[in-house]
Amino acid sequence: MTGVEEAITRAHRDEWARVVATLTRRFGDLDIAEEAAAEAFATAVERWPSDGVPPGPGAWLTTTANRKAIDRIRRENKRDDKQKEARMAYDDDPPEPLGVIDDDRLRLIFTCCHPALALETRVALTLRMVGGLTVPEIARAFLVAESAMGQRITRAKAKIKAARIPYRVPSAEDLPSRVSGVLAALFLVFNEGYLATGADTDPLRHDLTAEAIRLTRLIRALLPEDGEVAGLLALMLLTEARRTARISANGELVALDEQDRGAWDADLIAEGHRLVRERLATGVAPGRYQILAAINAVHTSARDIRDTDWAQILALYDQLVRVDPSPIVALNRAIAVAELDGPEVALAAVDRLDDRLAGYHPFHVTRADLLRRLGRSADSRAAYDKAIALAGNTAETAYLTRRRDQLR
């Protein structure tokens, strides 16, 4: 990759959400903002190799996108007042500094996560507009056809426009009821960065995990007493702390039990543990994200995999099952069961989930590992084959392939 290509890739990672959010604030139209941003990046691909990378790539992209948006509005023959608004919006003067609550990207995510939209649509729109993922990447994350995902996102933008959903942070009275949808969207954005599904993307996308963490910090500033916001932030920090140890030198995913714990980020772990302790001290019954954060706190407290307090982890999963009785939680609980009661007991619990998780590749990964531990190599190989076929992450596919090929 040339220096210009690297600059364009970096600019897309760092500036996409900022450009879309800025244009959305100026023009009040997600569709115009997205299209103009995409055109600006396409123009960069054409011009930067010959003109050189501008000193301020973000400002260049925003200015170019702004012009593209005005051109589109004029082409579509909008009303005179709309054209006047567009011309007024095109201003070379720098914008006034934004505070935490006035952050354009935070406004954008609350717009994308408006309760008028279905939860899956909110998440998909957030991944596209805030995360900058392509429609194929989002379709893979949802295990749906690309065309269906494209239509879902298009309909969501049209609904926001037709319903005149405001581009703003909700009022203090509405904020608590709106935050759960935002947290769900941010968690999925983080997960896409934690284990990227795109075949042509990096296996770990730090840009997405960092943006998810940044936006979660902003929401915590808005709702400092909300336990689930604190829980999600702690969960993200404790997971992100292990990022540098999760990929080997040859590009394979490194499982938790094989990671170099000395490479974990001690500062992120300390902050995550502090958040977990603060929530425990309140005595308020924890929600889903707080329990998941507590599970990760137990994992990151062990200096060696052999020191892991599996009994505590299982107790936390029992608590989580009562809050979130989903098959995915049951699958993760079975992993803890295997450490305490053995792989045979765990496999029986996992197999009961087959009808609900047959298309979920971690289900087959878990089965493959349990069957491997039981000495059932042929069955384990078959499970690895299913997991490899469903996995979209290049590092994970490499890891699973090696594990499968090690079987006799």
What does this structure look like?
This protein is mostly helical. Among the domains are: 87 residues; 88 residues, no CATH class. It has 20 helices and no strands. α13 runs antiparallel to α14. The protein is globular.
Structural class: mainly alpha
Tell me the overall shape.
Answer: globular
First-last Cα distance: 40 Å
| Element order: H for helix, E for strand | HHHHHHHHHHHHHHHHHHHH
Instruction: Tell me roughly what share of residues is in helical segments.
Output: 55-70%
What is the number of strand segments? Answer: 0
Instruction: State which percent range the strand residues make up.
Output: under 5%
Largest sheet data: none
The overall average pLDDT, rounded, is 88
Features:
mainly alpha, 408 residues, sigma factor activity, 20 helices, transcription regulation, DNA binding, globular, RNA_pol_sigma_r2, TPR-like_helical_dom_sf
Write the layout of secondary structure elements.
Layout: H1 3-27, H2 30-51, H3 57-75, H4 80-89, H5 104-112, H6 119-129, H7 135-142, H8 146-162, H9 175-194, H10 206-222, H11 227-240, H12 266-282, H13 288-301, H14 310-323, H15 327-341, H16 343-351, H17 354-357, H18 361-373, H19 377-390, H20 394-405
Helix pairs in contact: 1-2, 1-3, 1-5, 2-3, 3-4, 6-8, 6-9, 7-8, 9-10, 9-11, 10-11, 11-12, 11-13, 12-13, 13-14, 14-15, 15-16, 16-18, 18-19, 19-20
